[in-house]
Amino acid sequence: MPDLWLPGAERHPLGDTAPTDTQYDPRVIWHITWDRNASAAKPADLVPFDTLVKYFTGGGKGAAPHLLWDPFTGRIAQFYPANSRAKSVVDTVGGTRTNRTGKVCLQVEILFFPHCRVNGKTYATVRDTPAKGLDRILTWARSWKVPDTWPMGTPMWTAHRDERTWETEGGHYGHSQVPENQHTDPGPMPQWPGSTSTPKPAPPTFPGRSAFGPGKSNASILLLGQQLVRRDYGKHYRVGPSRDWGEADRRNVADFQRAQGWTGSDADGYPGPETWRRLFT
To answer: Are 77 and 68 in contact, with CB atoms under 8 Å apart?
Structure first.
């Protein structure tokens, strides 16, 4: 039998274990702690690892995962054994038993939030981190027969949930892909150690030209702004992107369009389908 406790992880057993639904294939759910809101213009220092350990063993034990992982140091804490459910995803009464689906349903909280600052450097996504210790987590997951696949695609900052896929396929899932949940984390993830390439996610669906422009406010504008910042086309933001369209959005999009060699109406700052595709690929 594989190890119930990840070798080398700090153990903080919470005790209130419960079985998983073993008729389903094994899986891992990835989250980020997202305990501070920051932006490219205003990064914030990463919350200390021990602060989160104290939270998950105290007032936050009702939302504790199996693992808390620091991708900057490789430090890992464990709160539940592999064969127990954890509690870090929403699980509504009478619905899909999201915390229990799988021979194992390993839940990993990554100590991270977008634009966190560590040793003076700012990190926009988990993919940008050193990902120290990831190989240990994946080796443990593989010992429980979790396949190295993303059944709903590699995570982006958008939600994509399919209950049939969730119930029929094992592998790795983002919090953004778990039924009954509303979160959009963990965002882009690192390349799996031992693999030769990172699977390239398909760009999110273009919402249509009508989603952008003066007076518009929606999640697509925020997604656009966040991607502009990741691609280093966010210099006109003073406080970071938001759901509300502004002149800074238009100017940043125009900068990106001009970088494609476009001029005139093709670089007017309003995203069309080709601007969207190039920005997200």
So the answer is: yes
- pTM for the model stands at 0.70
Alpha-carbon distance values, 96 to 21, 102, 167, 179 (Å)? 11, 12, 9, 7
Statement: residue 196 has pLDDT above 50: no
Beta-bridge partners for 68: 77, 109
**Spatial distance between the Cα atoms of 263 and 260, rounded to a whole number of angstroms:** 9
Helices (H), the chain: 49-56, 134-143, 163-168, 219-230, 247-259, 273-280
d(CA 55, CA 62): 10
Cβ–Cβ under 8 Å, residues 88 and 18: no
Supply the pLDDT for residue 127.
96
CATH architecture of the domain with residue range 10-177: 3-Layer(aba) Sandwich (3.40)
- The DSSP output letter for 73 is T
CB atoms within 10 A of CB 230: 20
- Domains of the chain, residue spans: 10-177, 209-280
Report the distance separating Cα 277 and Cα 281, nearest Å.
6
Q: Residue 34: which region, alpha, beta or left (left: phi > 0; alpha: psi -120 to 50)?
A: left
> pLDDT tier at 194 (50, 70, 90 boundaries)?
low
The half-sphere exposure of 275 on its side-chain side, counting CA atoms within 13 A, is 29
> 176 and 89 in contact (C-beta within 8 Å)?
no
What architecture does CATH give domain 209-280?
Orthogonal Bundle (1.10)
Structure tokens at 278: 């190039």
